[in-house]
Amino acid sequence: MRLAAIAVIVAMLAGAAPATAATLFITNTKGDSASVIDTDTLEVVGTLPLGQGKPNRIVFHPDGRTAWVVYDKSHDLGIIDAESRKLVKRVKIGGNPYNLAFTPDGRHLLVLDWSSDTSNDEIIFYDLKAEKIDGRVGVSTWPAHAIFSRDGKLLYVSGETAGDVTVIDVAQRTVVGRVVHGGGDAMGLALTADGKLLYAAAGENKAILKIDTATNKTVGEIALPGIVHEATLTLDGKYLYTTLRKTNKIVVIRTSDDKIVATIPQKGYPDLVTMEPTGRRALVTNRWADLVSVIDLSTYSQVRTIPVGKAPHGMALRPH
């Protein structure tokens, strides 16, 4: 009886404390703000003023307490307190930052910096505790997106105008590999759960490359009907969602045989894709339509849109 009573109490407590809904932060590049979307209700639950400077890319620290924003025009970074949903600080790191990534251990902020009068095309390692730069790694022109290997030892960086993927040893701060495909407008990267295969958007080559991470060699290529921007895997890894923003389409690829299984029309320049935590839906920024589209992954169809601020682009899911 005593064990049964304890079991009932545990069940009651579990029911009384439902899991907190995840939140997705969307930067509105022409609205100087960020919209916050509840991924359960698919409603905007807040808007954060971010100030002038064209806020664009946004990334959460692994602990979920802060989000960092890149300002394209003022060339600085903003720090958001995720709980209070307020901009608390702006800092200058690099000459012309385009995108950000955090090391998995949360100790370093990596700034993907584009060449300018005061900087080169490079990855800047910024020590968050010491508040100083403690490393730089030169890469090819316009580093755009970055993704870590599953063990966190390597960083893969796409070169937007160079049409390549640079492989960086994080501990040694050195380039250990480069895959050149030559397709301009190259950005999106997606890594399989086992870390053995990297999908890389080859932009103007109208293709997705399949790269063997053990050898840094291309082992396959998936042709697409347009210039491809983003590449994002579903949580189960069975499908790859790609955006063809110049033709307003999302193209869905089945990873088991690399076949296109769906083409989903979009309203206005689809940019980035995020998979919400339940694995049922994809959320896509449509920059020139001022909305986020919601895609049902079971039917490959758009089921609704979420109006946000003006010209949404960057998006980051708050980790829990």
Structural overview:
The radius of gyration is 20 Å and the shape is globular. 43% of the residues are buried. The strands form 7 sheets. A 4-stranded antiparallel beta sheet has the order 3-2-1-28, with no helix packed on it. A 4-stranded antiparallel beta sheet has the order 4-5-6-7, with no helix packed on it. By secondary structure, the chain is mainly beta. It contains 1 helix and 28 strands. It has one helix spanning 2-16, and strands at 23-28, 33-38, 43-49, 55-60, 66-71, 77-81, 86-91, 97-102, 108-113, 122-127, 132-138, 143-148, 154-159, 164-169, 174-180, 189-191, 197-201, 207-212, 217-223, 231-233, 239-244, 249-254, 259-265, 270-275, 281-286, 291-296, 301-307, 312-317.
What key attributes describe this structure?
1 helix, 52% strand, 4-stranded antiparallel beta sheet, disordered N terminus, 320 residues, mainly beta, single chain, 28 strands
The low-confidence runs, each spanning 5 or more residues with pLDDT under 50, are: 1-19
Rg value: 20 Å
Determine the strand fraction and express it as a percent band: over 45%
Number of helices: 1
Helix content: under 10%
What's the overall geometry? globular
Mean pLDDT across residues? 93
Terminal Cα span: 36 Å
What structural category do the secondary elements indicate? mainly beta
* Order of strands across the main sheet: 3-2-1-28
Could you give a quick summary of the protein structure above?
By secondary structure, the protein is mostly beta strands. It has one helix at residues 2-16, and strands at 23-28, 33-38, 43-49, 55-60, 66-71, 77-81, 86-91, 97-102, 108-113, 122-127, 132-138, 143-148, 154-159, 164-169, 174-180, 189-191, 197-201, 207-212, 217-223, 231-233, 239-244, 249-254, 259-265, 270-275, 281-286, 291-296, 301-307, 312-317. The chain is built from 1 helix and 28 strands.
